[in-house]
Write a structure and sequence with these properties.
- By secondary structure, the chain is mainly β.
- It has one domain.
- Helices cover 15% and strands 52% of the residues.
- It has a four-stranded antiparallel sheet. The protein has a four-stranded antiparallel sheet with strand order 3-2-5-8, with helices on one face.
- The longest helix is centred in the first third of the chain and has 15 residues.
- 27% of the residues are buried.
């Protein structure tokens, strides 16, 4: 399955970008969003705080899906924020599979990345610095 490779890629991207950093205080909202015509999607997204950089995964959630994480302002510079969404197949034939998925990342209310992918079991990945 693609998930283990995806997690390695996210970790590598975040690690490679974690050397930067600026001054300042306070937190900034990073909003991850997935929209799809599929009945269920899975999301893998990056987190960053003073303890380090990580990732979270939410499986089998109904779209539209949104997650807001608070990131220390000093960690916004030099770090990559990644969201990958994939459509979950309908295995019991209870409904149609989806054909479109869109990921979006907003930082401080501004859309900084957006991607749409189409096709059966499509995956969309957004990356923002």
């Amino acid at each position: 399955m693609r998930a283990p490779l995806l997690l390695v890629l996210i970790a590598a991207t975040l690690t490679a970008c974690s050397a930067g950093g600026g001054g300042g205080g306070g937190d900034e909202s990073v909003v991850y969003t997935l929209e799809s015509d599929a009945p269920m999607v899975s999301a893998t997204y990056a987190t960053a705080d003073s303890n380090g950089i990580g990732q979270q995964q939410e499986l089998g959630v109904a779209p539209p899906w949104t997650k807001t994480v608070q990131v220390e302002e000093s960690l916004l510079s030099g770090n990559a924020f990644v969201l990958t969404g994939s459509m979950d197949p309908v295995l019991d034939a209870s409904g149609p599979d989806g054909t479109t998925i869109t990921c979006r990342i907003e930082v401080g209310g501004e859309v900084v990345a957006e991607q749409t992918s189409t096709g059966q079991y499509a995956t969309a990945t957004c990356t923002a610095r």
